[in-house]
Amino acid sequence: MKRMLSGIKPTGQLTLGNYIGALRNFVKYQDDYEMIVFIANLHCITEYQDPKDLRKNLTDAVALYLACGLDPEKSTIFLQTDVHAHAELGYIMACNTYLGELNRMTQFKDRMAKGEKNMTAGLYSYPCLMAADILLYDANYVPVGEDQKQHVELTRDIAQRFNNKYGETFVVPEPLIAKVGARIMSLSDPTKKMSKSEETNKGCIYLLDDLKSARKKIMSAVTDSLGIIQLDKVNQPGLYNLIEIASSLSGRSMEDIVEEFKDQGYGKLKGYVADVVCESLEKIQNRYNEIIESKQLEKVLNEGALKASKMADAKLEEVKRKIGLEIKY
Ligand code: ATP
Ligand code: LTN
């Protein structure tokens, strides 16, 4: 069975974008792949997080992973810091990555160009840790949203370079980008990604939003003044985004939804999107509440960390041996 790995960085509450672009796909994949998913808590602290908020976000993320259908019997689920090999291989990866490569990472470059102050060295070298996350487990595929594709490509380059220098060590992974829902846009500004780090949260639906406020956000989503229901991503990005959200949650094609609503106006279409979203949220939230009450998180994380450590420690040992870091007695 091929192996698949992905991580989520819960610097805030998980969003509908995370669900459609990532989590939901993990659940589908766990039947056909050996699935490894982890909470990238080290990646969270590349920027200051209030410790209390961070703890809550991490807990909620694990509970939501399970609530969305990840099954600890099928998938390995763990917290990044519970497996020490991540940080150690992350450093080794940083020693095999060129500054020029990190300078080309658009996520970092964009923030630099905006003149952001006080960015940390951890943020800059983040792709090296991400490479370690992936390469430790010989993952064949890495399902991610569009925004992370460049980081997985850098991981491939680092892996190939390492293999050339030290001999075949790492599996070179491939990014896997879902066709529908790879980039869900903000409801208040459909030219931007729906993001938990958005300043106002009008454009972002959180998986734990109460249903009334989720509905309100959809009903007041920014669209356009053309008044035509069709699929025109360039001129009607808001409308396109709403249809994409409904399509990916309902399983209906985008064309089918357009066909049903084309003579009914934006209000009716938004009402439908809100129904579909609220139905999904309600299911997830009911499961989430059961999971939090059942106190099963600790057991899931302990077992996950044990399984992950076995794989990761063996790979790290191999890497250290190949580099010549170990002394033989
Ligand atoms: P931020 O919201 O702060 O920009 P993020 O949500 O991209 O961060 P993660 O939580 O690590 O960061 O993302 C987890 C996964 O969800 C990634 O694979 C990412 O590509 C995907 N994802 C995040 N936002 C969206 C979105 N709006 N549409 C589709 N996929 C998304
Ligand atoms: N960088 C990713 C989170 C992440 C990840 C990973 C995803 C950290 N390590 C390894 C896939 C594989 C993000 O910001 N979404």
SSE inventory with pairings:
Elements lengths: L2 E6 L7 H14 L4 E6 L1 H4 L6 H17 L7 E5 L5 H10 L4 H5 L2 H8 L7 H4 L1 H10 L5 E3 L5 H18 L7 E3 L34 H9 L17 H14 L3 H8 L3 H30 L2 H27 L6
Parallel strand pairs: 1-2, 2-3, 4-5
The protein binds adenosine-5'-triphosphate and L-tryptophanamide (LTN).
Summarize this structure as a short list of keywords or feature phrases:
329 residues, binds L-tryptophanamide, 14 helices, Tyrosyl-Transfer RNA Synthetase, two-stranded parallel ribbon, binds adenosine-5'-triphosphate, 2 domains, 3-stranded parallel beta sheet, mainly alpha, Rossmann fold
Tell me briefly what this model is.
With 329 residues, this protein is mainly alpha-helical. The chain has helices at 16-29, 41-44, 51-67, 85-94, 99-103, 106-113, 121-124, 126-135, 149-166, 211-219, 237-250, 254-261, 265-294, 297-323, and strands spanning 3-8, 34-39, 75-79, 141-143, 174-176.
CATH class of the largest domain: Alpha Beta
Number of domains: 2
Please work out how many helical segments DSSP would assign.
14
| CATH fold assignment of the largest domain | Rossmann fold
* C-alpha end-to-end distance: 38 Å
The second-level CATH architecture of the largest domain is 3-Layer(aba) Sandwich
What value does the average pLDDT take?
95
Question: How is the biggest beta sheet arranged?
Answer: 3 strands, parallel
Beta percentage is 5-15%
Shape: globular
